[in-house]
Amino acid sequence: MPVTVKTFSNVGEAAAALSSDRGARYFGGGTLVMRALNEGDLSISSIVRAQDQALLRIDASGPRVTIGAGVTFARILAERDFAFLHAPARSIGGPAVRNMGTVGGNLFAPNPYGDFAVALLALDAVVSVQGGFGARDIPIEEFLQSRERQAGALVLSVSCQKPLAAEAFHYRKVARIKPKGGSVITLAAHLPVSSGRVLGARIALGSMAQTQVRAKAAERALEGRPLDASSITAAASAAVEGTSPADNALASGWYRREIVGVHLRRLLSGQK
Amino acid sequence: MLELRKDIFADERDDNLKEIGKGTQRQDMLGHVTGTSTYFDDHKLQGMLHLKVVRSTHSHARLRRIDTTEAERSAGVRRIIRAADIPRNLNTLLSLINFGKDDEPSLAVDKVRYKGEPIVAVVADSPREAYEAMEKVRVDYEPLPAVFDVEEALKSGAPVVNETYPKNTFTYYDVYDHQKLRFGDVERGLAGADHVLEQRYQMSPIEHAPTETNGSIAAPDTNGRYVVYTSTQALFFSVDTCAKILDVPSNTFHFIGGTVGGGFGGKVDTITEPLCILGAMLTGRPVRYVLGREEEMQYGPPRGAERIYIKDGVMRDGRIVARKVRAYFDSGAYTRLSSYAAVKCAAHLPGPYTIPNVYGDVYCVFTNRTPATAMRGFGVTAMDFAIECQMDKLAHLVGMDPMEFRILNAYRDGDMKAHRREAKNTALIECVQVAAEKAKWPLREEFRRASSRQGGGGERAAVSPTPRDARPQPAMASQQRTSYDRAPVATREPQPPPPPPSSPPRAPAAPSHGATRFSSVFGTRRR
Fold this sequence. Notes:
- The complex is a heterodimer.
- By secondary structure, chain A is of the alpha+beta class.
- Helix content of chain A is 32%, strand content 24%.
- In chain A, the strands form 4 sheets. A 5-stranded antiparallel beta sheet of chain A has the order 4-5-8-6-7. In chain A, strands 9-10-13-14 form a 4-stranded antiparallel beta sheet, with helices on both faces.
- Chain A is globular and about 60 Å long.
- Chain B is an alpha+beta fold.
- Chain B has helices spanning 29-33, 69-72, 127-135, 150-154, 186-191, 235-246, 273-283, 293-299, 338-348, 381-398, 402-409, 428-438, 445-448, and strands spanning 49-55, 61-67, 77-81, 111-112, 118-124, 138-143, 179-183, 195-203, 215-220, 226-230, 253-256, 287-290, 306-314, 320-332, 358-366, 516-519, 523-526.
- In chain B, the strands form 4 sheets. Chain B has a 7-stranded mixed beta sheet, sandwiched between helices.
- In chain B, α6 packs across α7 (273-283).
- The radius of gyration of chain B is 26 Å and the shape is globular.
- Residues 477-493 and 503-517 of chain B have low confidence and may be disordered.
- Classes of the chains: A alpha+beta, B alpha+beta.
């Protein structure tokens, strides 16, 4: 059976087409879906597209930013208000991938990809999803954990709070090939400091489990404490807790477990 | 910035270079930078079909049964190609120059020897329909024990990878399971050395990673001929390989190539053309067969892995007096070009240094891994990496500057190389001196003054007495001949009795036409 392409003018119809067909796959920038088709992925029988301006919307004016699912990384990099997201956006692919790849698609990118979602996870983002029963908001952590079951849903946008201070947000992707290699591990940390103490610590890791995960033990090690050598050491040694990294061509699971604490320490203490 | 050091060896050359040192535009540059170069895959022919290959999911397994009935009925399928459809389903690349035995089928028969080995080809109207039909091919495997390590493969009782070579080693000159280099008495050299250093080096396979994956398009032409657009790096080599496998005269084909989207040695194996042309022959339609990126990475031939042991004897003053090398080339499951890489490697030992006692054993080993092939100086690159690492370690061991250590041991004009040829135009010393100068690396006066044209020859031109190994008797008949080999079958001359170990070896005979000649591939050969 040839692959059918269905193009809709609004997200509602696209979402309906997506949820009614098991073999349908939403086509954002095509950096994942076209690759799968070219490599003969027979699980895709049709691709669904939506030419809805709502997917391209950006709202960066207030303290809470909203990014349409169809916004590309190149566009994120072109927005001054998204400066806090430039490091993760720049760490994805080469210029060609950044011109096509979308924020929504990145939520579905399997290891060793999905770096932007790591940043969003550390920022406690909310994913707005159009399902069969209308739109609903899902916390990104819950969304990622149930990602396999979200295939029939259409992501409309993601939103998150801007970090109050630029230095409260940290991001690092460890790759073997720079600048565009897949992730060995990816780390993002949002550590708002109030009266000298970390309040609401969020640390997210990529390539350390089936999906992007939070390093909750490391977060606990920092919560309510000043960000100093002893709390960073405690967080670094707890970073591996609750992770289950797999082996792939870039690194073994063992290696990822060994280095995650090292890189978290460097990230939090501002070392290169 | 290119800088020509014309002051060095100025007396050896008329200063009339026409190309070197001058800017010359590559003839294909304009097309490449303007995006107008035509590659094989830029041909979209009317009625073109697409060929995909069902590949082994096992590294080593017997094929009990291949069931294609369901696949044949799959939508859009024009033809399923099985091993029996291939006129001569056994080949080795270098058979065209009569080197090695046919050991590799285009489609597996009875057994698969590496993960990804082609088993069945599907020709369909679209790539998608070909993929759908591939899903419906049922292959019943009986897994066999596999071997992935070169030294494990040489142990007795190791699984036999490739029945053409039951000892898991390529056979040189009908007799030897490895390439040998013997020069002087290495054991005595090691025994007399102040320090002995033995190290192990392991290189992994390397994928060529071309932008354009391997592929070809074959189309029926008039008068029973076929036009073939191909990514091959070795056009005429590919023509003859296809002619042999498809058992037709080579003028059946009109190969069009020349623009290669990245080769580096990974496009000499003619891995797509034979099946592609056969698809066109069997369907009467143009057929396209292109490897996907994952196929290219996983099953396209890589540079082979190599394991190298080097044991050196060095004197306190820095002179290397003995070098003993054992190297294992991982050829993967079939020969391709690693057999030749081992020849090149043995010819390269002991590196560009004058060492009075050299001993080399270089094995081309079969394992259940993807067959390895050519890549940029293959056979030499990895060995050089090992040798130069070793040189640094030796310099450290004797407390010498690594640059000066190389100048001290570098061969000089007139020295005898381990292959019993006189070293000429050596120039390594000057290269090291210029490199040191550029890197602002201080060299002591005596090393700055050293010259490759002084201090060579004399005692350094002598061939040290070399003990002879016992010669194995030829186990089988002389090398397999092919229809391409028009020479009469050579008869093996009786072996001369081995001379006593202390007698100096004979000087190499001067080559003359029509007499016995030496070739690095064939050894001594009658013309």
